[in-house]
Specification:
Length: 400
């Protein structure tokens, strides 16, 4: 899943085909290392003086590629809907999308291009917290508002007053799973296996460990790996010797699937627990049935009967042929928050757009109503999902 892999080519072809159906795309931009990126006019009109241009940075290739593709689809849907309703301030909306290849350094370079060359009004992205942290510095320095759909590390919005998110943060997500482990699963002793190069994974580990201990539980050990590792047997063997009742694995789906298989091969049959980084159809392909009986926290569930959620799911299926995951829902919500702010802002300068985003309250998102607090974080509930038979089933909701 590196540069010019089949997954990249498939995502590129899918997106190019989608653009062809809507309008003639602007000429392809070239990334810092010669890789083609996607300048994606969405909603039928290439950027012009009559078009409001947004920017999006996503992991369309690399280790978090399914996150980026889902987010891109959600953003595209939101802009298509807005344009069909007349656009904003009498103008159509378009988005320029860059692939960060799941790398923070690429995310930072893409953010620089969006603010210095493309002159976008708002940046949407990324999912991985490490990538968003790299982007946030550039957006803040340029005075261009940035909304991350799903980066949950608290440090992201601490970069400055131009940086927002429409998801909950890791202190809440870590608390949610610690509470569920103690009160619902009745676990007393757990182990943790974290990615020591991921701000997301480290942040969740810290909060889960603290909250689980405060609730009377014991963390037996915290083992570590690095993103891209393929052999986790040494860490899992060390964990097995301590006989935990559960294992918290706050990583991304591409690692978690392999970890689960190797754990079961070693005879570790206790439930695993994780966060929203598990949310991908690829998780089930990689893990097989090794994660059956395991749980993760997430931003929404497709089983939510809310008519607004079900309409989004139906529209997404019609457009892309699959059920949207939480990243698609959050991409859709982030774009809609940005669009609402553009409409509400007294003018289209960075400060005015920033102020309009900051005033977001009770916004009807498909991944939950969104109210931004004084730190520009979304206050919202979390869903707990159980893995089984190649899918994730809704279990319960835990509120702030």
């Amino acid at each position: 899943m590196r540069r010019f892999t089949p997954l990249f080519l498939a995502a590129f072809a899918l997106f190019s085909a989608a653009c062809e159906k809507k309008s003639q795309p602007t000429p392809a931009d070239t990334g810092s290392q010669g890789q083609a990126t996607q300048p994606a006019p969405t909603g039928g009109t290439p950027p012009t003086s009559d078009t409001l241009l947004l920017g999006q940075i996503s992991s369309l290739t690399g280790s978090q590629a399914t996150f980026g593709v889902s987010t891109q689809h959600g953003v595209e849907m939101a802009l298509k809907e807005a344009n069909a309703a007349g656009g904003v301030k009498g103008k159509k909306l378009a988005v320029r999308v860059y692939d960060n290849q799941s790398k923070p350094e690429e995310a930072a370079q893409a953010a620089t291009r969006l603010v210095t060359q493309d002159k976008v009004l708002v940046i949407i992205g990324d999912v991985a917290s490490s990538n968003s942290l790299a982007m946030a510095d550039k957006a803040q320095a340029a005075g261009v508002p940035m909304i991350t759909p799903a980066s949950t590390n608290p440090a992201v919005t601490e970069k400055g007053d131009y940086v927002f998110r429409v998801c909950f943060i890791d202190p809440f997500q870590g608390f949610v799973m610690a509470k569920f482990a103690r009160e619902n699963l009745k676990l007393d002793r757990v182990a943790i296996l974290q990615d020591n190069k991921s701000a997301y994974s480290i942040g969740l580990t810290e909060v889960f460990s603290q909250k689980f201990a405060e609730m009377g539980g014991k963390v037996l050990t915290t083992e570590s790996y690095s993103q891209g590792d393929t052999d986790f047997r040494a860490q899992l063997t060390a964990i097995k010797k301590l006989k935990p009742q559960g294992i918290y694995v706050p990583g991304y789906y591409n690692d978690v699937g392999l970890i689960a298989r190797q754990a079961r091969e070693l005879g570790l049959t206790v439930p695993m627990m994780g966060g929203d980084g598990w949310d991908s159809e690829k998780l089930f392909e990689l893990a097989g049935n090794a994660l059956d009986g395991s749980y993760f926290s997430n931003h929404y569930s497709p089983q939510n009967p809310d008519p607004r959620v079900q309409k989004f799911i139906a529209d997404y299926k019609a457009a892309y042929g699959s059920t949207p995951d939480a990243l698609a829902a959050l991409g859709y919500d982030a774009a809609r928050v940005a669009i609402a702010a553009l409409e509400k802002a007294k003018d289209l300068t960075g400060p005015s757009i920033r102020d309009a985003i900051a005033q977001t309250k009770d916004f009807p998102g498909v991944a939950g109503n969104i109210t931004l607090d004084e730190k520009r974080n979304a206050v919202k509930s979390a869903a707990i999902l159980k893995v089984g038979d190649g899918k994730a089933e809704f279990v319960t909701t835990i509120n702030p």
